[in-house]
Design brief:
Elements: H1 2-10, E1 12-13, H2 15-22, H3 29-39, E2 40-43, E3 46-49, H4 51-54, H5 61-78
Antiparallel strand pairs: 1-3, 2-3
Length: 85
């Protein structure tokens, strides 16, 4: 999906910027939000792509876990967004 590709390349982006890059507005924003929620986590007002998107292979588990830890620590310290990480 296009949303996942943008997030994979950006690693972190504000929702408005994402919609602008995708040329989405109005009624289509809801479908973008659903896609974003499915592959990222909100940290300090920016969507950060999930580690499983960046490191999909099982052999990358150590990298995925390390990245998840860093995102989770930043997320918990700042207290923004959801608790999905």
């Amino acid at each position: 999906m296009q949303v996942t590709e943008v997030l994979r390349n950006a690693h972190m982006i504000q929702f408005g910027q994402l919609c602008s890059l995708l040329g989405m507005s109005g009624g289509k924003v809801g479908s973008v939000l659903e896609a974003v929620i499915g592959c990222s986590v909100l940290v300090q007002g920016c969507w950060v792509v999930d580690s499983h998107v960046i490191y999909p292979e099982a052999s990358d588990a150590a990298k995925r876990n390390a990245r998840d830890y860093i995102v989770r620590e930043h997320h918990v310290i700042k207290g923004q967004g959801s608790n999905r990480v």
